[in-house]
Write a structure and sequence with these properties.
By secondary structure, this protein is α/β, with parallel strands linked by helices. The protein folds into three domains: about 170 residues, 3-Layer(aba) Sandwich (Rossmann fold), CATH 3.40.50; about 180 residues, Rossmann fold (3-Layer(aba) Sandwich); about 80 residues, GMP Synthetase, Chain A, domain 3. It is about 30% helix and about 25% strand. It contains eleven helices and 20 strands. The strands form five sheets. It has a seven-stranded mixed β-sheet, sandwiched between helices. Strands 11-12-10-13-14-15 form a six-stranded mixed β-sheet, sandwiched between helices. Strand 18 and strand 19 form a beta hairpin. Helix 2 packs parallel to helix 6 and helix 10 packs across helix 11. It starts with a strand and ends with a strand. The relative contact order is 0.10.
């Protein structure tokens, strides 16, 4: 894909009253054979949302709690608000009803909300047992949302037809077009680590509301800045926190927008609170950027609040390297967005990392490095079979991607791939960016 042209994913929300099989349908689409799944590593363990693909069209599927307008309890009210916000955010809604139980008053309440939203809706009649008796679904026409589409999510029956219809109903794929020489930066991290403050410090003006209330930044906000001959698009995103700690419904679903921002960025500024130090949620968020192949800079904010001696920074870096073992390549920068300490270094480091992630190695040089690496450390073998690496070529950048042509890909051990990656980094740097190594059988 060309630099500066990224395709935004549509959001599809699954809604309905409790116990109609919403989560079963969600799991069927994202986890079954009917879809190729791009998982979100550890950010939400119960898989509140995931990216899925059908007929070469990607979309983000969102599972929601059951909508119940008959119960006014506090928990039910929160679930309802969260689901309604998911509807507001969605490009398409799958309204799931229970074909076995038939139409009831809560279904009609949900239908009224959906009609008011004016969002495209597919009415999904789940738990169908006899597909030759569709006349049993006629009552659902009273919802005013068109013909019910019969499925059995538990058995996977007719879900292919549902996905065909889903793709047809999605709006045309939008391309996010940006000038080719603009570097897109996503500022990510847990709530209240100073993302908006850092963006304001970089911009030199108050373009983003700053507050100590987690979740103030609901949407991903793009701001443009020029420094010398370089242009940047800076995306301030809503804070991402563990689902068990999410109380505000608006914050809960703003997570999706934050992950979207990572998807359309070139470089990620991963903010970490210097006082709280590295948390498990930091690791999950950083892991998402890493798995997406985005270059990353670890920005430790609020450094002015830390008591220091001559070893404090080194100890902090060691802890980061221990906790983020998969991201050894990411440079670390200590800043204070409040006092602007070292904030000027952020864009300098972005420029450097951008050069690293766009670096290309000549094929001849690459294969010379590979030959020398194999001389020092021979490729693995298994039961008399030896792995042979014939040659390599660079297939792309952002992230730097290399194809290794081998005799038997299954003989490649992950430790030897890591060895090759280390040789590439030792020779050429690639600081700040993941490296992707792909096996191909010659």
């Amino acid at each position: 894909m060309e630099r500066g042209v990224l395709v935004a994913k549509s959001i599809v929300a699954i809604v309905g009253r409790p116990n109609v099989g919403k989560s079963t349908l969600f799991n069927r689409i994202v986890g079954g054979r009917v879809a190729i799944v791009e998982g979100v590593p550890g950010v939400t363990r119960d898989r509140l949302y995931q990216d899925a693909e059908w007929n070469n069209r990607w979309f983000t599927l969102v599972d929601t709690g059951g909508l119940d307008y008959q119960d006014e309890g506090e928990i039910v009210s929160h679930i309802r608000k969260q689901a309604e916000l998911a509807i507001e955010e969605a490009d398409l809604v799958l309204f799931v009803v229970d074909a076995r139980a038939g139409l009831n008053g809560t279904d009609e309440d949900v239908a009224r909300v959906l009609r008011r939203s004016e969002k495209p809706v597919i009415l999904v009649a789940n738990k169908v047992e006899h597909f030759d008796k569709v006349h049993e679904l006629y009552d659902f026409y009273r919802l005013g949302l068109g013909e019910p589409l019969p499925v059995s999510a538990a058995e996977g029956l007719n879900t292919g037809d549902l996905l065909d219809r889903l793709v047809q109903e999605l709006p045309p794929a939008e391309e996010d077009e940006t000038e080719e020489d603009v570097i897109k930066i996503a500022v990510i991290g847990r709530p209240n680590v100073g993302k908006s403050s850092l963006v304001n410090a970089l911009l030199g003006e108050e373009r983003v509301i700053v507050s100590n209330i987690p979740g103030t930044t609901r949407d991903a906000i793009d701001s443009y800045i020029t420094r010398g001959d370089n242009k940047y698009s800076i995306i301030d995103t809503a804070g991402i926190r563990r689902r068990s700690k999410i109380g505000l419904s608006t914050e809960k679903y703003s997570v999706i927008r934050s992950l979207r921002a990572v998807d359309r960025s070139d470089i990620v500024l991963m903010l970490i609170d210097a006082v709280e130090q590295l948390t498990d949620q930091d690791k999950r968020i950083a892991g998402y950027a890493h798995e997406k192949g985005r270059a990353s800079i670890l920005v430790v904010n609020k450094w002015d609040l830390v008591e220091k001696d001559d070893r404090t920074a080194n100890r902090y870096i060691e802890n980061l390297r221990d906790g983020l073992g998969f991201m050894q390549y990411a440079p670390v920068l200590f800043v204070s967005a409040l006092t602007h300490q070292r904030v000027h270094r952020v864009l300098e480091l972005v420029d450097y990392v951008s050069e690293q992630q766009n670096m290309r190695i000549a094929t001849a040089d690459l294969n010379q490095l590979l030959r020398e690496a194999m001389l020092h450390n021979a490729p693995p073998q298994d039961r008399g079979r030896h792995l042979k690496i014939f040659y390599a070529t660079q297939a792309g950048v952002k992230p730097p991607t290399f194809i290794l042509f081998v005799n038997e890909p299954e003989l490649m051990h992950f430790s030897y791939l890591r060895y090759i990656e280390n040789q590439l980094r030792s020779a050429y740097g690639f600081e700040g960016t993941p490296i992707k190594l792909v096996m191909r059988k010659r």
